[in-house]
């Protein structure tokens, strides 16, 4: 974010993974595949609302993908109009308060 490497050695760490492993209240290190990791941020009281918004957004995205996949399957098997296209599913509009909170977080 600041355009410079993290001062790991000055902070007493040998690697970024060692740094984040030393902050279990902030980030969780999850093994992924082939020796890679996923870092998951842990919400506190000040970021709990944002974490809930993100979780809700993920659930909605899965539902949209499922609906779109069903629409594609139905459109492909439709004998009435073989060239019909499934209707696009619109993403929900983010409330102004949530948008402002996210902007504050990113700034």
Automatic annotation (TrEMBL):
Residues 68-81 have a biased composition (Low complexity). The keyword Metal-binding does not apply. Residues 61-92 are annotated as: Disordered. Keywords: Differentiation. GO terms for biological process: cell differentiation. Coiled coil: none annotated. Residues 1-43 form the HTH OST-type domain. This is Tudor domain-containing protein 5.
């Amino acid at each position: 974010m600041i355009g410079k490497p993290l001062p790991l050695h000055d902070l007493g760490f040998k690697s970024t993974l060692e740094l984040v492993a030393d902050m279990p209240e902030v980030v969780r290190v999850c093994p992924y595949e082939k020796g890679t990791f996923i870092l998951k941020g842990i919400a506190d009281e000040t970021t709990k609302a944002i974490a809930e918004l993100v979780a809700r957004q993920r659930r909605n995205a899965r539902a949209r993908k499922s609906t779109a996949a069903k629409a594609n399957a139905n459109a492909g098997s439709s004998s009435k109009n073989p060239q019909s296209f499934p209707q696009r599913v619109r993403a929900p509009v983010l409330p102004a308060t949530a948008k402002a909170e996210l902007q504050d977080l990113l700034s």
